[in-house]
Amino acid sequence: MAAYRKQDQHMIVEQLLYWLRDIVAVQMELAPSSLFFPTYYERLAELGARYHLDELLFMLQGIEQLSRRMSTTLPERQVLEDAFREMIV
Q: What is the C-alpha separation between 49 and 26, in angstroms, rounded?
């Protein structure tokens, strides 16, 4: 059961990375065909207008770091707490 939970967590983190990547792609005016979520183009554009590129890159970096840490043997609670603490500070 724990293996399935870990797999689900990785899938969620991966989807967050794709979502943020798409927001950056829309900001950079890439073609909708290059997006992971092209059907949400308008929503991605709204979010892209709300954030500066440096903020989005900071978020991407945090999620990528979370993904790497989840692959370690650190306790999952510690990994998640550290990731969220870094995002809000």
A: 10
